[in-house]
Amino acid sequence: MEAHSPPQEQDDPGDSNLARRLPLWLLALIPLALIAIALVALLTVGGDTLGERRGPPVEDIAVERTVLRPGEIELTVRNAGPDAVEVAQVFVNDAYVDYTADAEQVGRLGSQTLTLDYPWQDGSPLLVTFLTSSGATVEHEIEVAVETPVADGGFYGLMALLGVYVGVIPVLLGMLFLPFLARVREHWIRFFMAGTIGLLGFLAVDAYLEGTEIAEQSTGAFGGTVLLFIGAAVAYFALVALDRYLRDRRQSVKTAGGGAFQLSLLIAIGIGLHNLGEGLAIGAAYAIGELALGAFLVFGFALHNTTEGLAIVTPLAERRRPSLLRLGALGLIAGAPAILGAFIGASAYNPELVALLIGIGIGAIVQVIVQLVPAIRDRAGRALYPASVGGILAGVAVLYVTGLLISV
To answer: Burial of 55 by CB count in 10 Å (0-12 exposed, 13-18 middle, 19+ buried)?
Structure first.
């Protein structure tokens, strides 16, 4: 009795070879084109098939920027809701005021600038109420009315000087600890490296809390608090890529941590991005009258940021001392962003932009901490032991105590 095998299915040569004959870019372009066609069809005819939405329009506008000039208030509002919004009337402290607008309606994610004719008094609180065309009300509170500084040459000079005082000079002074570190023993170097981790960890947590508070004050149109995490992820992976690039260019790579100067450079970049966010806060506080410039403020920031210079030079303690030019470059990388931050914060403050930049600083700091952990391991390979834990806690304590002298 003969065994018969089941009939084999014959593949269509045309079907099997068609995908192989097409170029790779076309195979990717075809589904992308179909997706685009489907989305356009949903936008054009999809809404008609679903019928009209019931209920009142969803209106969500919030003030993004406030500028106070003598006799007028300029407000930039952004629409974070799905429907267009038309501002019909504006009240300040329950009094109707005349205003001009640069547009009749604010579309989704759009912005509108309103200029209110109102003789506000210096130092007085203001409550601005918007009445939309649908009858909804939106309130915006100005806690203390202070004239917004004019962004002229003198203003930018003051911001630059402030950035130098609180950013550049303290970091450079802290780097003067390098000769001292070069004389101490290896276990003390690990202690100071652990202190650097504690210092950076404190900065990251403090930046997260500050960034969350600022993001919650934003309109939320572009993500709000989510921008903190986006910025952190971008900075973290960007610094990972930079670290890999620097390692490839160096022939002498130290165990688990890269070259000493490379590690100091990454620390300087992380601290610089943090100081950018610090400058943003200083500049914004000055612009709205919540920052009083004085010797005590400068002293507090100087003492606080001096520890950052110590953190930068700690990896260099056991290596050949770099040139003064390189040391100066590290100091500028860490401190100079405070100047740029003060410029942006005082002249073009935007809560969501600030949240994104603070997130970038957080991500950079976290990546630097990852780079530092191998440098504090003892001969048994432990990262956490009494001396390293003590160093971490000492770094946190120093920044906590010096931070009490700062009020922004």
So the answer is: exposed
Q: How far apart are CA 166 and CA 171, in angstroms?
A: 9
End-to-end CA distance of the chain, in Å? 96
The CA distance from 349 to 65, in Å, is 7
> Could you write out the DSSP letters of every residue in 235-293?
HHHHHHHHHHHHHHH-S---TTT--HHHHHHHHHHHHHHHHHHHHHHHHHHHHTT----
Q: Assign domain 61-142 one CATH number from 1.20.950.20, 3.30.420.10, 2.60.40.10, 3.30.70.1520.
A: 2.60.40.10
Contacts of 214 (CB under 8 A, 6+ apart): 351, 354, 355, 358
Q: Which residues pair with 96 in a beta bridge?
A: 91
Looking at residue 81, the DSSP 8-state letter turns out to be S
Domain ranges of the chain: 61-142, 153-403
- Which structure tokens are listed for 63? 């003030």
**In this structure, are residues 358 and 229 in contact, taking their beta carbons and an 8 Å threshold?**
no
Beta strands in 58-136 (DSSP E): 61-69, 72-79, 87-92, 95-96, 98-101, 111-117, 126-132
Q: From first to last of the 408 residues of the chain, give the pLDDT tens digit.
A: 455 555 555 555 555 566 677 788 888 888 889 998 988 887 777 666 666 666 667 777 888 888 888 999 999 898 888 888 889 999 999 899 999 998 888 888 888 999 999 999 988 899 999 999 888 888 998 888 888 877 677 878 888 888 888 888 888 888 888 888 888 887 888 888 888 888 888 888 888 988 888 888 777 778 888 989 998 999 889 888 887 777 666 544 444 445 678 888 888 888 888 888 878 877 777 766 655 555 555 666 677 778 888 888 888 876 667 788 888 999 999 999 989 888 887 777 778 888 888 888 888 888 888 888 888 888 888 888 898 999 999 989 988 887 776 655
Spatial CB neighbours of 327, under 8 Å, sequence gap ≥ 6: 175, 178, 313
Q: 260-287 and 153-163 helices cross at what angle (nearest 10)?
A: 140
